[in-house]
Predict the structure.
Amino acid sequence: MDQALSEGQRKVFEAISRYLDDNDRPPSLEDIQRLTGLSSRANVKYHVDKLKEIGCIGQRAGSRGIFIVEPGKAVTPSVINTQIIGFVAAGLPIQVYQAPEDFFVSSGMARNGDFALRVKGESMIEDHVEDGDIVIVHSDVNPTDGDMVVALVLNDKEDTAGAATLKRFYREWPKDTSDRGRIRLEPRNPTMQPIYADPAQVKIEGKVVAVIRPVMRKAA
């Protein structure tokens, strides 16, 4: 940093650096306020904006997009914003609703284009997926038998939305080759039954590649 920083700017810059060293995601304004002891989010934002003007930090889109600018060095993001786009049922299918919120994970855990969903239900508990967990999903995937998937179960040929469910995916092939078989969406809870559907009624949204358990979860 060639330009001298004010006391407030220095505290904010050091807090951002410390948070990035200790976590796999950038800090929010609330995180910076907590670390610096500044009086308000507005005060934090003022110093963050000044640091951006000076060129000490940059900020990508989203509430947690802050990164440190190193002179002469290209910045490579170490985190990816997968965005939580709604809920998925680990039980009977429920509708996914669009309620995006930022959710940053390590770039080693996700890739651009992945998305996240909160889990509701207990049908996958034997796979250590519990109610309130967050699953990271690779989109546009052709699953193989045994993959954990987010599947849309369609009611009929006219249905394009369907209801989303989290299950293990299996194809069941009949002895009669004229029959195209069926899809089995298998829960991992011995008290629950599989969902069987015609292949035309199942649309795979993606394959689960990671399960994250928030440290603090709201009580149901």
User: Anything to note?
Assistant: The longest strand covers residues 202-212.
